[in-house]
Amino acid sequence: MRIDLHSHSTASDGTDSPAELVRNAAAAGLDVVALTDHDTTRGHGEAIAALPEGLTLVTGAELSCRIDGVSMHMLAYLFDPGEPDLLAERELVRDDRVPRAQGMVAKLNGLGVPVTWEQVKRIAGDGSVGRPHVASALVELGVVPTVSDAFTEEWLADGGRAFVEKHETDPFEAIRLVKQAGGVCVFAHPAAAKRGRTVPESAIAEMAAAGLDGIEVDHMDHDADARVRLRGLAAELGLLVTGSSDYHGSRKTVALGEYTTDPEVYGEITRRATGAFPVPGTGGR
To answer: Which of 243, 192, 245 shows the shortest CA–CA distance to 221?
Structure first.
């Protein structure tokens, strides 16, 4: 089985619609794909309706969190999307995305970059606006060559010249809420140092004690040394190890299925979840 547990659609900051994403996942030879848009489950219905035969969809979301001033992302799988407390927290995070992006536009204008809010809104479309949309605007203007090049201290990285904070959930609260909704929690790309400061291993150990299920190890932002170190940490803490593309369509160079999760780990994730179940494809439309 080929299993990719981290992807994004136009419901947040990917460039594939949810329907396109599941069709592309099947074309890439995947057996299982997780749709984990930022702080939203809005794309799940369209993805399920279009799900090709032979492909299973894991419903989820990537939750925006912050601990001790460090931003981090928590992948939440197979939770009940209607559970009221987790839903309220996701809405609180999403509602703060617009003023945050507007603040980044204002800071960029102050730095002499002629980006406009209208431009960022056009790029975001119906998705939840975020830093990648502002980064794409910088690419359009020729300020940086790629989206990744916008995530530096010069521009949009944490603490960067145009960075603006937003509401982010405490990860221990995120774990509690996801568990309450019957879901499974995996810390996304924990060693992605090029994105900014990373969470110390001592904090990951505390999260493990609080119910964290796993850490994403095989990821484009982790070099070989980081993967070895994270595997050792996972073994020490009894955490599951996942691998995922973190696919964003044309917004990133990584392909669906470029990094994958072991089938035994996937089986354990599905065993632990009680809020929702993987959806098998029936042919889509």
So the answer is: 192
